[in-house]
Sequence to fold (924 residues):
Amino acid sequence: MVEGQIPVEEYDTGNTKHKWDLKKIKQAHRVVSEYSYKKGKVEKGYANRTLYINLRTKEIKEKKVTEKMKDIFTGGRGFGLKLLWDSIKPTTRWDSDENELVITTGPLCGTTQYPGSGKSLCLTVSPSTNIICDSNVGGFFGPYLKFAGFDALEIQGKAKHDVLIIIDGEKGKIIVETAPLEEKDTHLLSEQLTNMYASEDIDKSRQKVSVVTSGKGAENSYWGCLNFSFYDIRRKVPRVKQAGRGGLGTVLRNKNVKAIVTKVERVSGISNNPADPVTLAKIGTKLHREVRDLDRYQCNMRAVGTAHLVEIMNEYDLLPTENYRFGSFPKASKIYSPKFYKYFTKIIPDGCWHGCTMACAKTVDGFTVITGPYKGQKVTVDGPEYETVGCGANMSIWDPLWILEFNFYCDTYGLDTISTGTAIAFYMEMYEYGILNKERCDGLELCFGNSYASLEFLHRIASGHKGEFVQVASKGIRRVKDWLINNGWGDIKLIEDCGMESKGLEYSEYVTKESLAMQGGYGLTLKGPQHDEAWLIFMDMVNNAIPTFKDKAEALHYFPMWRTWFGLNGLCKLPWNDIEPADNAETDDPTKVPEHVQNYVDYQSAMTGNKITKKDLILQSERCYNWQRAMNVWMGRGRRKDDWIPYRSMGPVTEMEYISRKDRYDKYLAEKIGLSEKKIEKMNVKEKMKILYDFRQDQYQKLADAVYFRRGWTPNGVPTPQKMKQLGIDDPKMLEFLKETIEKDDKACLNVWGGKYSKGEEPPSIQPKYWEKW
Amino acid sequence: MDKPKTVKVLKFHPEKCDGGLLCEKACSKVHFKSDEGGDKSAIRIIKDGNSYKMHVCDQRGLCLDMCPVGALKRKKNGIVWLDKEICIGCQACVGFCPIGAMRKSDARIEPFKCISCGACVRACPNGALELVEVKIDRIKEVVYHNLGAE
Fold:
């Protein structure tokens, strides 16, 4: 057992210490714009105003949050959608002046009693997808933004020079000032700014500052993430959590924002001013006890965080290895969670917001950097989480230390580990086939398993390398596909099928080939292929609990709505089902974790004082979910064609993949497609693959049919005005636009089902324009 | 800083207790300036058949490693102390206390606990309570972060 009860002051990570002349750095700042505001009180979870900053016009103002806005959009991501709807155009792209970076909180954000209550939701028009991307993130920034006085922050326009935005909740001041001398990479910049803006030179003051930063990698790629800091009084470093997906850090740097700093005067257990703090403390304590008693028998979050999934995914053939060609690998045990547990610092409250006893935010302290500009320094690495370890597997990197190295540099350069890892894995596969080679990769030998080359790729992105490969490859898989195809390098179908992106965003780290519902969970999504909407693999593939299209559609309605709800409130999803009550399996619907859903009903009621039911939670989500889909349509990317997914996520693209799981696929041909064993035996692999390909593509279209219908959309995937009205949405611009779009689709004969229905099969509805009768 | 080696903890003599709960009332006076006892007292006397049981913090300090803001520390005299000015009311210590001795009253969000002040000892007319000195190393306990079930 590691020694515990070390006084906070005596903790030492052994990290390399930095000395900066912060006075001199600060003296170089020049105020660009300034705004004083009256400090207010948060009431029942809402600050009741949002903050708008335009970096081009230098305007700073407050916007009132109306009761109607709360009724329709709840908060968090919902508020973000509303603010964007009012500010952008359908033609707005990620680098347009009017594009906004929005950081929102949510009514439950900042609660300390219930684990997982410190999430911020960030939204922008993404460079990867050209539609709105939302990304949730821990750290102290969201709670502090609200306690400083604002439910959300909107940043529009671009600054002329690198600036800092300071939201000073202590003095009631917003300041935009130039920041020419600060470092750019996160682990240094967040430390500089935390020290610079802390009211006193003590850890307690530093803990009241939170910083949003990105890094050099974000400037030169489409994978920029936002790092949200949370100062750790034991480790004495600002640790960071990432809003990773969709290039939000790229937008931050494109606006020439170096960092956003927020500070508060005081944080207490009732800073949110809840309607009923007694109930809040009771349900929170109940969950703390569940975590205490059950976590070590369930997910081991407190010990290893989400990395516990690595061994489970490998076991079930779901851990993506070598660009999702396989779901398990003989070397996988080298990166199982016990290998990381060895390096993690133990017995420290590791929540990314106060009171999260699930404490999944693990770190490796005193890690010696292996390559690049910080080679030889000792640093704190935040993570790795499952996804980052999964990227290791995907690149065929089986050494925990190299995964830590990859994790560290992605974070400090401001790169999303998921997009970066998934993309590199694709480039490696292309390298293996000779579609890419050393020459085409500017001298990088990007073959599977080459950790040095992967890291060198990151360093080149960060240093602004001008080689053609780095320039294109840092913009993601979609751009590389086009580049390869335009150059006539390699087979188009192979390239399209292997590159794991949809809507322009890279996949996260799960193999979905054998779970149709999960293919929908990635494809029939708002922002692109990310597992935060639904995770149905076990329900679908292992337990076969949702066999029909209708069942799958119901799951692809309920779970995305339910998971959306966390983002409307500023919550983390993990304490919902990564810890379960001891008797959960005996409830009527264990996959929903009914007792915890009830917790959230009680929780929101206790905060806002409004009595609600389980159904109301889904209704809150449905409004925002449909609104976001409608905005996707509005921006030109929210219809059936945009829900396309690469075949690598549906089945074997290469003969090697088929042969490696031959028994499974042969059995599938017999049982699901009804081929006789004799026939299967006579066919060669190519023939079998073709039949499987056609069948699974059709299955996916049938799934989309069922899901669109269940969600209240047209067969082309457009939310109907009738559905919107049912949800209480009366925005005339929105309703009129949807009506016109559906009419246009109708004229173009696009309101038709996508599946090929043979005898005995029926599409979800045989009524044309079924929605008009609602 | 020299670390404290010993701490005073409460010892209960059930045979001397008459269930008068003057100890609880004295305790709530210390913590809430109220003589209600009960939920506002860090020490609880519970009827146990014909006898009584005491329920109170034993200063083992498992909660010290739970506090995200450093509001819990071992004082010079060895007791585990919650500084309610620093506390952010998360209840992590309440939820993780293995014996439920970190208490929460509806009166405020910050929890409270026994500080071995001796008010209850002095309040007991029967001498059923006493403070005894124990070695911290012998009672100290650390919150689990083990990998897997034990």
Notes: Chain A touches chain B through 46 residues (CB under 8 Å). Residues 15-263 of chain A form a domain with the Aldehyde Ferredoxin Oxidoreductase;  A, domain 1 fold (CATH 3.60.9.10).
